[in-house]
Amino acid sequence: MALEIGKKAPGFTLVDTEKNQVSLSSFEGKNVLILFFPMAFTGVCTKELCSIRDNIALYNATNAQVLGISVDSPFTLARFKEEQGLNFPLLSDFNKEVSASYGALYDTFIGWMKGVSKRSAFVLDKEGTVKYAEVLDSAGDLPNFEAIQATLAQLN
Question: Does the predicted model carry a pTM greater than 0.90?
Fold first, then answer.
């Protein structure tokens, strides 16, 4: 079940591409855009995250920290981040616990893979309350970035 707007987002601590632990609570006082994505090095995921990279100024202008999360290993995410020149943290939910707690986990993906993050977007305000939630069933779809940016703009 996806998170409800107006509810507090579940806290988490995950490992980033440099193998540092990153906690959601460390971003208190900032708006946060969490993007769950199925798999590094796939076409739609690359398009989505490169779009964020190319428009990072829009998110910075709304005092928003962008976090990309997938079930890929930190090593895979490090390579992906480097190759694509991504300018925001990628976090490994290798154990699939955070994706599940956000209602953003496929039971099966493309017929045989189990436990892959659903493409999803969550905007949290400075107190960690969910202000926007979008969980996509089709991995080929992209989040509504205009609605995300409008939500972030309203928070400032």
Answer: yes
